[in-house]
């Protein structure tokens, strides 16, 4: 009986102490609430907080000791003793629920006024965190030793109570209030009220199950710190961000519909202002949604509008046409936010410069009368000068306005590659243009020279038929190397080195050999002192057979006595130095300078070797029949026409027939014009098409020669493709059809083989038993060892 009485007394004591703690908490919380309500400093001392803390500590410690004693003596459980901890926790919850009920009631009174809702929610959320923080300090002992047994914390309990008793009930009201303020901000362009940030923070923490409540001294605010960001982030996205994105999309789609009449620059300026406004709003109030908002705007403003903006009458084409470079740069920067949309700019850029290039293709014939430096420009020079101007403009725009974007760089190459290769004459014209540029390079500084060569290479990079270009380039290179007046070995090497960086072919080896021949010839002449004891300067070029574009060698021509002895001495000297080699004189390729004296005047005539041989005959007499000249020189009749008619045209030799009539009558007499006089003392008498008879056979010969050249090129192409196909098959052993085609195309740089051409070569290799088809799958090939 005494034990039962003793237990009842203990219960009463516990109850009294609990009530005392509750009363002390009520007194303290009234002070806290009063301070929060008035917005002034909370007038509660640490002494009051410590007093409550000590009371809770003493009670829970006393209850804990009693419980331990009962467990050790195995006395009957006293349920009331065990419930002291729960009652303390309940006190904590009741005090918070009372506060929550008050703030919810205040909110309901102004639910129809968004300004009031904004202020009340912002203020009450701040007050609740402060209120919870002070209670946490009072009940800290519970949080440290009792709450872990329950499986939560006081801070987490505080947040859960707020969510259940306040946030869940007014979530829709809070969300609508936030969205209304955001819409007003977007319409007016004025940044959000900072109190919105407090409301949005609710969504950042309400999904958290574990939080800490801390006082941030730096900003003077209380805040929940989430321990598990995943839960909070999920809740934030579902309850706030998803609605924000939906409203954002809806708002700006309506805005875009109202701005369809905007020009491209106007829309870009408006779009940039939207990105700036939204970025500031995100940074200020909802930074967690910054990336999502930016992505949504990229879709609405950029991705969905890119094609329209680029192709509009004030889009890329207009900007390029009228040099609106600043507007183009702004458009690029705007669309660059979504890289996949750069395709639209790249396509418009390519279309514009394709059109510009095609205009050059179409108009080149109308511009053949242009004059430069006192001479009529060749159509190749006109064509590539204009093309380079357009390419330079495109390149400057690409670099300065379009940031050298790789995709647009491809469009640049694609545009000019298409245009230049549409012109069938491009490979030939580029060889001619290169020849003109190199010949005009004298007196130009190294930097300018390198710039010119780089332009030639940039054009070369765009060619499909590089083998055709090299065939013609080789002829022009031959003429330049064999003419000492325009010969520039160093420049030729420099250009050749640039070509090697673009394509590695046997042709380049031949070109290098040609330059090497000239260098060796010059060294041999210098070492052997060739010109010593001779009456005239002799320059001999030793050309390796097979490297030079020599179509025919006319070695049966009768050498004039004036040079025969010198040539024989040279031949003897060379063969002594290089025993076993064979020398053949190519009189149809050399050049020389004749000194022509008449009437006390001296003229310097620049002629080729056959002209020199034919004209030297007139040292023996003032007139000769054509038949006599043919017999005395053994020069081919057509070559003789080409050689002597320029003398007739320049009035050095006179004839009874028209100047450029052919030598059909071999009995016709050619005479020296003894009254010849000319102001120019140096004259070029070299054969040219304007000083040649019109021959039907000549046109046929040219056509036949072109056909032969193309036939040779096709044979070389067949060899190139065959070698690459065999190389691939040898390394792979087995390969699929499409892989073989793709790899073969990628490996060939000297020309661009089409698919049909490669397929024909595959069939040829099958016939020649280099490869075979798979018996079950004809799209698979096997290499035959």
Q: Would you mind describing this structure in some detail?
A:
With 785 residues, this protein is mainly α. Helix content is 65%, strand content 7%. The protein is built from 29 helices and 13 strands. A hairpin with a 2-residue loop joins strand 5 (591-598) and strand 6 (601-608). The model has no long low-confidence stretch (mean pLDDT 86).
- Count, helices: 29
Percent range for β-strand residues: 5-15%
Helical residue percent band: 55-70%
- Round the Cα radius of gyration to an integer and report it: 49 Å
What structural class do helix, strand and pairing data support? mainly alpha
How far the N terminus sits from the C terminus, by CA atoms, comes to 112 Å
Shape: elongated
- Please describe the biggest sheet, giving its number of strands, its sense, and whether it closes into a barrel: 3 strands, mixed
Q: Enumerate the spans where pLDDT stays under 50 for 5 or more consecutive residues.
A: none
Strand order of the largest sheet: 5-6-10
Number of strands: 13
What is the averaged pLDDT score?
A: 86
């Amino acid at each position: 009986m005494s034990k039962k009485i003793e237990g009842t007394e203990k219960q009463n004591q516990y109850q009294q102490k609990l009530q005392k703690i509750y009363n002390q908490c009520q007194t303290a919380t009234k002070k806290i609430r009063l301070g929060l309500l008035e917005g002034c400093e909370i007038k509660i001392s640490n002494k009051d907080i410590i007093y409550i803390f000590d009371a809770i500590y003493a009670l829970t410690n006393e209850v804990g000791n009693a419980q331990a004693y009962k467990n050790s003596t195995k006395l009957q459980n006293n349920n009331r003793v065990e419930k002291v901890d729960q009652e303390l926790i309940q006190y904590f919850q009741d005090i918070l629920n009372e506060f929550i009920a008050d703030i919810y009631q205040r909110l309901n009174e102004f639910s129809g006024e968004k300004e009031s809702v904004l202020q009340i929610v912002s203020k009450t959320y701040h007050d609740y965190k402060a209120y919870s923080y002070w209670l946490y300090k009072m009940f800290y002992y519970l949080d440290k030793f009792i709450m872990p047994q329950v499986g939560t914390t006081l801070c987490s309990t505080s947040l859960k109570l707020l969510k259940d008793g306040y946030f869940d009930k007014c979530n829709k009201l809070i969300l609508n209030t936030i969205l209304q303020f955001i819409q007003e901000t977007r319409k007016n362009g004025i940044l959000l009220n900072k109190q919105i940030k407090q409301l949005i923070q609710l969504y950042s923490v309400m999904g958290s199950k574990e939080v800490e409540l801390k006082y941030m001294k730096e900003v003077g605010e209380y805040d929940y710190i989430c321990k598990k960001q995943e839960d909070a982030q999920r809740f934030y996205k579902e309850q706030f961000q998803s609605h924000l994105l939906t409203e954002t999309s809806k708002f700006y789609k309506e805005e875009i519909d109202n701005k369809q009449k905007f020009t491209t620059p106007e829309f870009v300026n408006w779009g940039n202002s939207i990105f700036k406004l939204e970025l500031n709003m995100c940074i200020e109030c909802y930074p967690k949604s910054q990336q999502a908002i930016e992505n949504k705007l990229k879709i609405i403003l950029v991705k969905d509008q890119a094609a329209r903006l680029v192709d509009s009458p004030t889009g890329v084409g207009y900007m390029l046409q009228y040099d609106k470079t600043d507007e183009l740069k702004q458009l690029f920067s705007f669309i660059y936010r979504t890289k996949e949309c750069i395709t639209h700019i790249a396509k418009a850029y390519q279309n514009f410069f394709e059109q510009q290039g095609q205009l050059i293709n179409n108009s080149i014939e109308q511009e053949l009368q242009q004059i430069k430096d006192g001479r009529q420009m060749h159509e190749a020079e006109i064509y590539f000068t204009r093309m380079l101007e357009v390419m330079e403009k495109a390149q400057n725009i690409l670099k300065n306005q379009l940031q050298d974007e790789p995709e647009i760089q491809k469009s640049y190459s694609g545009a000019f590659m298409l245009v230049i290769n549409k012109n069938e004459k491009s490979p030939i014209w580029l060889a001619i243009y290169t020849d003109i540029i190199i010949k005009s390079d004298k007196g130009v500084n190294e930097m300018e020279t390198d710039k010119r060569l780089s332009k030639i290479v940039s054009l070369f990079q765009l060619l499909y038929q590089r083998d055709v270009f090299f065939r013609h380039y080789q002829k022009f290179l031959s003429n330049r190397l064999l003419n000492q007046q325009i010969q520039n070995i160093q420049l030729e090497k420099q250009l050749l080195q640039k070509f090697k960086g673009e394509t590695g072919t046997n042709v380049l080896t031949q070109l290098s050999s040609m330059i090497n021949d000239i260098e060796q010839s010059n060294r041999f002449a210098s070492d052997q002192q060739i010109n010593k004891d001779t009456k005239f300067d002799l320059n001999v070029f030793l050309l390796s057979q097979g490297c030079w574009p020599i179509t025919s060698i006319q070695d049966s021509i009768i050498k004039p006595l004036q040079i025969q002895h010198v040539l024989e001495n040279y031949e003897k000297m060379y063969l002594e130095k290089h025993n076993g080699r064979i020398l053949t004189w190519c009189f149809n390729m050399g050049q020389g300078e004749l000194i022509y004296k008449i009437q006390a005047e001296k003229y310097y005539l620049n002629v080729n070797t056959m002209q020199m041989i034919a004209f030297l005959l007139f040292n023996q007499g003032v007139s000769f029949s054509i038949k006599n000249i043919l017999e005395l020189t053994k020069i081919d009749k057509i070559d003789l026409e080409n050689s002597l008619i320029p003398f007739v045209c320049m009035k050095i030799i006179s004839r009874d027939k028209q100047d450029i009539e052919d030598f059909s009558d071999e009995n016709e007499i050619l005479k020296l014009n003894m009254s010849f006089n000319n102001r120019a003392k140096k004259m070029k008498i070299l054969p040219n098409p304007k000083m040649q008879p019109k021959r039907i056979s000549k046109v046929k010969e040219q056509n036949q020669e072109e056909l032969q050249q193309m036939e040779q090129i096709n044979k070389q192409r067949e060899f190139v493709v065959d070698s690459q196909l065999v190389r691939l098959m040898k390394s792979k052993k087995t390969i699929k059809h499409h892989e073989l085609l793709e790899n073969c195309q990628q490996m060939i740089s000297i020309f661009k083989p089409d698919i049909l051409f490669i397929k024909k070569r595959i069939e040829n290799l099958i016939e020649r038993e280099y490869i075979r088809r798979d018996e079950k799958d004809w799209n698979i090939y096997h290499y035959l060892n």
